[in-house]
Amino acid sequence: MMSARKLVHLGTLVLILNFVVAIVACGRNSAPAARSDPDRAAPVEPDLDDVARLRALGYLEYEEDQPQPENGGVSILDPDRAQPGNTLIVYAGSCICDLITLEGDIVNSWSATPCRRWYASVLLENGDLVVVGSDSDPDAPVEERLAGHYIMRLSWQGEMVWQRRVAAHHSIEVTPSGQLLTVFMKRRHAPPISGTEDVIDDVLALMSMDGEVIEELSLYDVLEGSTFYLPAVTTDGLAENIECCLDPFHTNSVKWVDVPQLTNENPMYEAGNVVVTSRNLDSVLVINWPRRELRWAWGRGQLSGPHDATILDDGDVLVFDNGLVRQRSRVVRLNPATGAMQIFNPPPQVEFFSRVMGACQQLDNGNLLITYSTGAQGFELTPDGSLAWAFTGTRRVTSGHRTKIARMTRLPSAPISAIVDPSDEDAKSPQSQP
Questions:
Q1: Taking the complete model, does pTM exceed 0.90, yes or no?
Q2: How far are the Cα atoms of 54, 357, 400, 425 from residue 326, in angstroms, in the given order?
Q3: Residue 1 forms part of a structural domain
Q4: Tens digit of pLDDT for each residue in 18-70?
Q5: What range does the domain containing 341 cover?
Q6: How many structural domains is the chain composed of?
Q7: Nearest 5°: phi and psi at 321?
């Protein structure tokens, strides 16, 4: 374990993860105007076939060609600048979730077998873990693959509390009202965009803490009834997609918009809104659930294969931009009112390209936690672009490559300390979930 006051650097990761921050102001329109940044300094004509291939890549069925460091764990820790807390890590292909300290020590670990993949997880106040996963055969027909998906609740000790066989994928969170918010895949007809071919609709879903479905909302129905342009889809480049055949949306994140202080400022902050990230539409969407209406959309021409958008307390939008067209990833923070963009970029000579997955989290101290999924790494950047914390995954697949990290989430340590040691009065917090 690292000394609590020692700043540790591994040369390799300092080179790989030495990020800088570029801040770009872009007019006062509702969407950012063209700008100059390292990604756009030398524009290249995108290879559309290559972009389609990258979109169709299976999450687990290919391996990265970047170097695989021998040692894993925490390599950089600045205790004065890192956000205190524990980090929840979802190892996609290993079906393992680790909760670690800033020093990299494992506080708790959950796993399941048989299993093919875990997409996402959320830790409840009482220490239970809710995960979205799949144990389906990637070569099976679509309907069988959909039937292999599930949401499962595990106790702190790793025992199954319940499992629901629903075609959930990619996203799970607890809403302000204490329900579970996720997304299902459902096969349906959509003639306006696919002719006679079926598509996989992404259906937003609210569930109880007991795993019962409360309400559903079809993304296709919302968009088809709006002015949002839905492009036609074909089987070109999508037939090998391990999740489905025709995948117009590929929603990878749905989150409740919880900024009551901004409710009256803009329709995108209204009560009952959710923010949806669609990889295949290159878009971030804000939808009002009660009205079943699209309230705001942005991303086309700016994002390419994005993941994990969040609306922050000040109303800004934070999103992981995979950069399939430019073949270079970044994190973008957008002010929707002014169009100002803050772009977090690695130096041009450093590879940072997460073809799939990827996540980002704004921390309470102003730092940014970035999940570099295909590199099986996570790092915490300070507002000036310095590294306060860096981690490389410790789990490997049978080939020796590191297991991809679906996402990492920094959590306050006090509630977790109360679970680990219930006698610690200073660490106790309410444990309201059943």
A1: no
A2: 12, 16, 29, 52
A3: no
A4: 333 333 333 323 332 223 343 333 334 455 555 555 555 555 444 455 555 56
A5: 11-427
A6: 1
A7: -100, 105
